[in-house]
Every structure is written in structure tokens, then in C-alpha cells.
Automatic annotation (TrEMBL):
Residues 201-371 form the Methyltransferase small domain. Pfam families: MTS, RLMG_N. It comes from Pseudomonas taetrolens. It comes from the Bacteria. It is found in: Cytoplasm. This is Ribosomal RNA large subunit methyltransferase G. Belongs to the methyltransferase superfamily. RlmG family. It catalyses: guanosine(1835) in 23S rRNA + S-adenosyl-L-methionine = N(2)-methylguanosine(1835) in 23S rRNA + S-adenosyl-L-homocysteine + H(+). The gene is rlmG. Its EC number is 2.1.1.174. GO terms for cellular component: cytoplasm.
Length: 374
């Protein structure tokens, strides 16, 4: 296993979710670059450091012991990885203060280290929330691999923090070093909202929600084919995003019981607010989790899923395959998983390996809606 070696620490790190013969490591040259830069520049012991979007804990854990570290991201899996990797590297699991991206920060911070996220709206929201949270003389340093660093990231740092100096590239990684200035006050453009015709609801979307400006075409294809006449069935919306599948289903199934799960804290926040706006005080469980990993076996009758095909910048069907396995485990015998997917992804054959029956419910030129029965 590769070891992250910097002037601060030598770390053995694992990714989440874990998979056998993991082809990817849990850190990259951008993590190394920003830590080496910080060591060269020096930072007083016990400084308050905020780490944003630390995928698996490389930055936060490196600084444990010498700094007071707060870590904030929008990923339940990243939070889980941070806790596991703290213990793996002989620290207490709570040695870092963890703040979900849906919660406010409590500064002031002497230094902010930012892994530039895939969604620039999340970066914008995070930078806006740094208002009033920076100590005098604070440093704000963003880092990413060059191929994942859009020019707009520097523009956002300049707009909300101050002048930005881009470093030379090292091992295909770059730093954006911002000098804080008095700016603002700023009003966040998030959450965004859009209105649907069928069902006639308004959906609120916090900054990191998938397709926050409008309904994605996969969900649009899925909605007319959601299962009906569910009675008092126990239904989960797996990877719920803003909650639209569960809400649309619940409006047509007044006695069904719903659980909405996503690994994004902002998605869960959006889904709960949308559920309450559409369905009032109707009972629901909404939680951030590693898919259905926290769901009891044989506890669901129906699972609805529009599976993702990427984790941060990594594209593949590993997460979808894992969600299908989790759904099978959580469903009762005779229960059903309903999914929408791009035709080219070949989900039918994958589901057939796990479920006793797979049928095509509907199709468009681009998508198929499948039902897999346990």
C-alpha cells in the first residue's frame, strides 16, 4: 500500500468505500504539494486549520497533533474515511472536529486548505461561508490536480477571498494561494429552486445537489414509471438527491413508509426540506449514509434508485454495483428494486447476477427503467 510521506507525517490511508484490490490510492500529488508548501512556509503550533473537501483524510490527519484541525466536506463516505484513517494511523477517531457541509462553521481559522471540489457551486458556497471565519493574517490555499482545476476556481477565490497567486505545477498538481481582503457582505445564491409540472411541486437544491438547476433527464424518464398501488410498503429512495423520486412516489402512495438516503449531506438537507414542503408532517426517515449499509436486512419492500456513475472525478460502475448489492440485502424476498440507467451501462446483465428476475419496465432512446425482483 502506498504511504503518504510529508514533513508532517507518514500515513497509511484507505479509500471509502473499500474494495478488494483497490486500484486507486487515497491521496494524490495535490495533497503532497499543499502539505509540503505548508511545512516550508511554517505555521505556528496549535494554529486552527480548516480543511475543506478532504476526500479520505490525507490533509486533516497529517496535521493532527501539531494543529487544531476542523474538517468539512459534503460526503458521508469522506467523513467515514477520515474516522477510519485516524484510527488506522493511531489517533482517536474524534481527533479532528468534523463539520458536515450542511452545517455552519465556527472560526476563526488561521489557515484554510481547500481541495477544489468537482462542483464549483459547492466551492462558491464554502467560500461565502468563510465570511467572518478567518483570523487576522489567515491563509487560504486551494489545491487540485491540474486536469481537475478549472480557471473558474481561481475566479471564485479572487471574488470571495482576495488576490490569488497560482503556483508552478509540481507532479501535475497546482496551488492557488489567496490573500484575504475585507470583502462582502455576500449573499449566497444557494439553495436554488425549480418548479415541476408533474407532480406540481417546487424543489429546493443546496449547492452540491446533482442537477440543482433542473430535473435531470434520467429522473424525468423514471417518474412516469414509478410503481403504483404500494399500499403500506416500506420504500427506500437510494441516492435520493433532492428527494424527487420519493416525494413523487409518496404523493401517489399515501400509506407507504419512506426512507431517503444519500451520501451527500446537502442532498439529505434538500430532500428533508422538500419532503416537508410537499408532504408536511408525514413521517419519513432521511439520513446521510453509505447507501443502504445501515439498513437492516429484509426490511424493505421497494427500492427506487437513479444510481451515480462517478465518485468525485473517478468514473465507473463500482458505486452502482454496490448499491444493487445493498438493495438486494435490504429487500425482503419478493421485494423489488426499480432503477433508471443509461442504455449503454448494461445494468440488466449486472442485475441478473443478483436478482431472480429482471424486466424492462420502459425505455427511451437513451434510458431504460428496470425492475429487479429478489
Amino acid at each position: 500500500m502506498p504511504v503518504l510521506e510529508t514533513p508532517f507525517a507518514q500515513l497509511h490511508l484507505i479509500r471509502q468505500p473499500e474494495q478488494q484490490n483497490e486500484p486507486l490510492q487515497a491521496f494524490d500529488a495535490a495533497d503532497e504539494y499543499v502539505l509540503n508548501h505548508l511545512a516550508e512556509q511554517g505555521l505556528p503550533a496549535n494554529s486552527r486549520v480548516l480543511v475543506l473537501n478532504d476526500s479520505f483524510g490525507a490533509l486533516a490527519i497529517s496535521l493532527v497533533g501539531s494543529m487544531r484541525v476542523t474538517s468539512s466536506s459534503d460526503s458521508f463516505l469522506a467523513t467515514q474515511a477520515l474516522e477510519k484513517n485516524l484510527v488506522r494511523n493511531h489517533h482517536a477517531f474524534d481527533a479532528v472536529t468534523i463539520v458536515p457541509a450542511s452545517h455552519p462553521l465556527t472560526g476563526p481559522f488561521d489557515c484554510v486548505l481547500v481541495r477544489v471540489p468537482k462542483t464549483l457551486a459547492l466551492l462558491e458556497e464554502q467560500l461565502i461561508r468563510l465570511q467572518g471565519q478567518l483570523a487576522p493574517g489567515a491563509r487560504v490555499i486551494a489545491t487540485a490536480m491540474v486536469k481537475h482545476l478549472p480557471r473558474a476556481a481561481g475566479d471564485l477565490l479572487e471574488r470571495y477571498i482576495g488576490p490569488v497567486q497560482a503556483s508552478l505545477a509540481v507532479k501535475k498538481a497546482r496551488l492557488l494561494i489567496a490573500t484575504p481582503e475585507a470583502k462582502g457582505p455576500f449573499t449566497s445564491p444557494y439553495p436554488s429552486r425549480y418548479v415541476m409540472d408533474e407532480p406540481a411541486i417546487e424543489l429546493l437544491n443546496h449547492a452540491n445537489v446533482f442537477c440543482r438547476e433542473g430535473l435531470d433527464i434520467g429522473t424525468r424518464a423514471f417518474l412516469p414509471h414509478l410503481p403504483k398501488n404500494l399500499g403500506s410498503a416500506r420504500v427506500a429512495d437510494l441516492g435520493c438527491g433532492n428527494g424527487v423520486l420519493a416525494i413523487a412516489s409518496a404523493l401517489n402512495n399515501p400509506d407507504a413508509q419512506y426512507t431517503l438516503v444519500d451520501e451527500s449531506f446537502m442532498a439529505v438537507q434538500s430532500a428533508l426540506e422538500n419532503w416537508q414542503a410537499a408532504l408536511g408532517e408525514r413521517d419519513v426517515i432521511v439520513r446521510a449514509d453509505d447507501g443502504l449499509a445501515g439498513q437492516a436486512p429484509d426490511s424493505l419492500d421497494v427500492v427506487l434508485c437513479n444510481p451515480p456513475f462517478h465518485q468525485q472525478q473517478v468514473v465507473g460502475d463500482f458505486l452502482a454495483w454496490r448499491m444493487f448489492q445493498q438493495a438486494r440485502e435490504a429487500l425482503v424476498v419478493g421485494g423489488a428494486l426499480y432503477i433508471v440507467g443509461n442504455r449503454h451501462l448494461g445494468y440488466h446483465s449486472k442485475l441478473a447476477k443478483l436478482f431472480r428476475g429482471v424486466e424492462q419496465v420502459a425505455a427511451t432512446p437513451k434510458f431504460v427503467i428496470l425492475k429487479a425482483r429478489k
